[in-house]
Amino acid sequence: MKSAFLTRLYIFDICAALTYGSKCGQTEYLSAAGVCCAICAIGSVVLKDCHGDYSTTCKPCSKGTFMNVPSGFNSCFQCKVCENGLYISEDCTTMKDTVCEVLDGYYCMNYSDDKRHCLLVMKHSECKPGERIQTRGCRTLNSPVEETHPHTSQCAPSTSHL
Q: What's the DSSP call for residue 63?
């Protein structure tokens, strides 16, 4: 009878752990040693797990890296590099990633899931002789090109606005 009770208790504990997550609180992480340790603040990561009477030792993120949430991570995230039609509108700090914006003459083809970051930019269409720009492109839309009389040179340079 006692064995059946302990087996049920053990199974309940496993189910509870799977259902409700680790035994640590919201401001703690589970160390490799199985101890709940205090998480590090934004801008820093774990240098050394807590043990005994010693609390978690945190280290600040180095230049070119960041941590934008309190965590129990051991390494910071690499800062984003703005390239290929993007420019830096906000520099990366130890607490937040680089913010990139679309350069004039380009438009964003693909945004991140949260619609806050452009993942792929393309150069605005340029017209050839016998074509013209229908409307000016912007950072989110290409410049549509239309045909004109084949011997007419109404080609206007691709432009964009903010």
A: T
C-alpha 40/C-alpha 123 separation (Å) is 42
Q: Terminal CA-to-CA distance of the chain, rounded, Å?
A: 75
Domains and CATH numbers, the chain: 26-78 (2.10.50.10), 79-123 (2.10.50), 128-155 (no CATH)
Whole-number Cα distances in Å, 121 to 31, 118, 126: 41, 7, 15
Joined together, the tokens standing for residue 40 give 């590090």
Instruction: Provide the 8-state DSSP code for 16.
Output: H
Cα dihedral across residues 113, 68, 73, 77: positive or negative: positive
Task: For residue 68, report the phi and psi dihedrals to the nearest 5 degrees.
Answer: -100, 10
Residues in the chain: 162
pTM above 0.70, yes or no: no
Q: For residue 93, which amino acid is it?
A: T
- Give residue 109's identity as a one-letter amino acid code: M
**Which sign does the torsion angle of CA 88, 85, 135, 113 carry?**
negative
Q: Each residue of 84-141: pLDDT tens digit?
A: 889 999 999 999 999 988 888 887 877 777 777 778 888 877 766 666 555 554 455 5
DSSP letter assigned to residue 150: T
